Amino acid sequence: MGILLAVLAPLDFVNSLLLRIGRGIGIFAVALMVIAILVQVVFRYVFNNALPWPDEAARFCMLWMTGLMAPTAFRRGGFVAIDMFTHSLPRLLGSAISLLLLLISLVVLVVALKIGFSEVTGFGGRFATASLYVPGNLSFSEWIRVPRSWMMASILVGVFLLTLVNIELILRNIIASFGGADRMPVIPDPDMAGAD
């Protein structure tokens, strides 16, 4: 069990750090998304002149927010789960079923990593968005369309972070099954802000 705890400690640290950064960027993305939607509502219904870029900007921010916030929810148990079945079983059997489900999730996430990588580097990633532009240089004299690969990178980053969290949860499950739950580092901020 000492080896598993030695592997878990740095993974816990890395996940805590990456997910904290991801939450900060995700909150910023939500704020930008709300601003883009409000701009679109005002221009569409007040000025009767819809802008082409706010919908795409909101979609871009939503994808990145999802990719960066979902791993935190997964780590903290914030996903919808029907766990009354595993809680009604003996502890070891319930842990074994949870471990099996985490291993199945890991297989799905590895496949999703391949799909995310192909979305970023493949044929679809070579195109650009229709109406979303960013400065092409520091003097703002040239503007380029946002590559679609930047949007699809949210899938790759999100699934990579979910995979790291899944591996951590597998290790935590194994350690807890052997009675080492009290020796594991605590997942910070397990309360989902009143989501219970």
Structural class: mainly alpha
Question: Which range best describes the helical content: under 10%, 10-25%, 25-40%, 40-55%, 55-70% or over 70%?
Answer: 55-70%
Classify the beta-strand content into a percent band. Answer: 5-15%
Number of separate domains: 1
> What kind of sheet is the major sheet?
2 strands, antiparallel
Low-confidence stretches: none
Tally of helical runs: 5
Overall pLDDT level: 88
Distance between the amino and carboxyl termini? 32 Å
GO biological process, one term: C4-dicarboxylate transport
GO molecular function: transmembrane transporter activity
InterPro entries: DctQ (IPR055348), TRAP_DctQ (IPR007387)
Domain Tripartite ATP-independent periplasmic transporters DctQ component: 33-173
Task: Outline the fold blueprint.
Layout: H1 2-46, H2 54-75, H3 84-88, H4 91-121, E1 128-135, E2 143-147, H5 148-177
Antiparallel strand pairs: 1-2
Helix pairs in contact: 1-2, 1-5, 2-5, 4-5
Describe this structure in words.
Part of the tripartite ATP-independent periplasmic (TRAP) transport system. The protein is mainly alpha-helical and 196 residues long. The chain has one domain (2-183). It has helices at 2-46, 54-75, 84-88, 91-121, 148-177; strands at residues 128-135, 143-147. A two-stranded antiparallel sheet has the order 1-2. The longest helix has 45 residues, at 2-46.
